[in-house]
Amino acid sequence: MRHAIAVVGAAETTDMGHIPDLSQIGLHADAALNALADAGLKPSDIDGFATASESPVALCSHLGITPRWIDGTGVGGCSFLMHVRHAAAAIEAGLCSTVLITHGESGRSRIAPSPLPIPTPGSLEGQFEAPFGAVWAPTIFTVPALRYMKHYGVGEEALANVAVIQREWAALNPRATLKAPVSVDEVLGSRMIAYPFRLLMCCLVSDGGGALVLTSADRAKDFARPVYIAGTGESAEATMISQMADHSSSRAFRVSGEQAFRSAGIGHADVDHLMIYDAFAHVPLYGLEDLGFCKPGEAAAFMAERHTAPGGRLPVNTNGGGLSYAHSGMYGMYVLQESIRQMRGIAPAQVADAKVSVAHGVGGWFSASSTIIFTNQPSF
Amino acid sequence: MSDTRPLPEPTPETAAFWKAASAGVLQLQRCLNGCERAYFPPRNFCPHCGSRNVGAFAASGRATLYSYVISHRPAPGFTPPYAVAVVELEEGPRMMSNIVDCEQTPEALLLDMPLKLVFQRQTDAISLPFFTPDRG
Fold first, then answer.
1. Which chain A residues have a beta carbon less than 8 Å from that of B10?
2. Measured distance CA(A78)–CA(B67) in Å, rounded
3. Nearest CA in chain A to B76
4. Is B111 close to A150, i.e. CB distance below 8 A?
5. Phi and psi dihedrals of A361, rounded to 5?
6. Is B63 on the interface with A (CB under 8 A)?
7. Does this complex have an ipTM over 0.90?
8. For an engineered disulfide with A52, which of A74, A155, B59, B125 has Cβ 3.0 to 4.6 Å away?
9. What is the Cα–Cα distance from A51 to A57, expressed in whole angstroms?
10. pLDDT truncated to tens, each residue of chain B (136 aa)?
11. How is residue B86 annotated by DSSP?
12. Cis, bond preceding B12 (omega within 30 deg of 0)
C-alpha cells in the first residue's frame, strides 16, 4: 500500500519545560517557525492550518498565513492527532496542499493561557459531577482506575511501575524534565494526590509546544526525512467520566486503534515503537490493552516483564512521557513529535531500525481518542 | 475549605429530576418504546434507541460502589480527604456521588459494597443525592 501523505516538518519549541519568556501564542509561533525551518518552508507556503485551544484564525493572522483550509477541532490533548488525520484527508481531497499544525501552552508559567474549561452549572458535568468534587483532571481522569485494578487484580505497584519505566526512558533524553532514576517504593512513598494516585503517578505541568508540516507524499520526495502516515483513527466516548461504559476499558481507545490498524493494513507484530499519551500512570495500561498489544488485564505484567522498557521488544513512551518528559496540559503534540523523531532516526533514545511507530492520544478523561500510525517506508 | 460546593443549575431537560430530588426522590427515566432500559443523566429521549417516548420513575435508592478516588487536594466546599465516587444503581445506570457517613479511606470504601441513597438539602431548590453504606 502506497502512503499518500507525509510529515515534512516537525519540531518542538526551542526550550521545553519552563519557558517564562514566551506567552501561549508565542509558544505556538516558536514551534511553528522551528517546524517551518525544519521543512525549509515559509509561512506563505502554508495553505492549510489546524490548532486547538488558541483560535486557528488568530494563529494564521499571527504567523502570516492565508489558509484555504482550517481545522479547529478541540477535544483536549489528542486534538493534534485528530488534526493530522483531518489534514491528511483534506490534502488527499485537494482542499489544500501544505498544512501546518501548531500547539503551544504556557501550562506552568500561565502567561496569557487559554482559560481552563470549568463546567458551567447548567452543563451536564456542572449538574451531575462537579457538585461531588470532581474538579479538574486529578479527580476525574483517575476515577476509573480502582475498578480496573479490582477487575484485573492489579495493585498500586503496577501504577508505580509505569512511572519507574518511563523515568528510565527520560534518563536517556537530555530534554526531559525529570531524569533521576526512581524506584517503585519511591513512587509509592510520594505525596498522595487522589488515592490511589500519588504525585509521581501524575503528569508534569510544563510550558512547551510543537508543530508539524504535512503535504502529499508526491511532494515529500523533495524534502529531507519524510515520515509517512500509514493509518489513522479517532473516536469519542463521554465527557462525564461516570458515563464511561466500562471503567476497565476505553471504548474510544478501542475504536480509534482498530480503525488505525485497519487503515494501515498492518498487525501489532509490525509495530516497532509505541507512544501512549500518559496523563496519569494508569493510561498506558489501558492503552496497551485497548489498542490490542496486550490481552485485557495483562498490561501490568507485560510492563513488569520490561517489554516496554529500554531494551524491551515494544519500546513505549521513549521520550519519558508526560510523567517525566513534559506535559503542558495537551500532551498529544509531544506523542506525535517523538513518533516522528523515531521514524526519522533522530530520537535521543532511538529504537534501532524502527520502521513503524504508533502514536496514541487521549482527550479529556477517556473522553476522546485518536491514533496515528507513522512509518518511514513510502509503501508497505 | 470555606466556600460552598458548586451546585447544579437545572435546565428544561433536568428540572423534573431536581424537583424530585428536592422532594427526596431519585428520579430515573426509561425508554417506553420497547427497549425499556433505564438511563441517566436525564434527557427527553432514549440514548439507546433515540425514541422520544420515555417516562420517569422513582429509583429504589439501592446501589453499589463502582469506582472512586480519594482526593487529598482542597476544593471549594470540600475538606480533604474526600472521595469522588461513581455508584452503580440497582436499575443499571451509574452516577457520580459522594459516600457520606463513612470514613474516607480505602479500608472503609470497598468496591461493590452495598449503598443506600440519602439526600442532603443544599438550598431551597437543590438537594443532592448522596450514598451511605447499607449495613442493613
1. 122, 127
2. 25
3. A133
4. yes
5. -125, 160
6. no
7. yes
8. A74
9. 9
10. 447 899 999 999 999 999 999 999 999 999 999 888 999 999 999 999 999 999 999 999 999 999 999 999 999 899 999 999 999 999 999 999 999 999 999 999 999 999 999 999 999 999 999 999 998 7
11. E
12. no
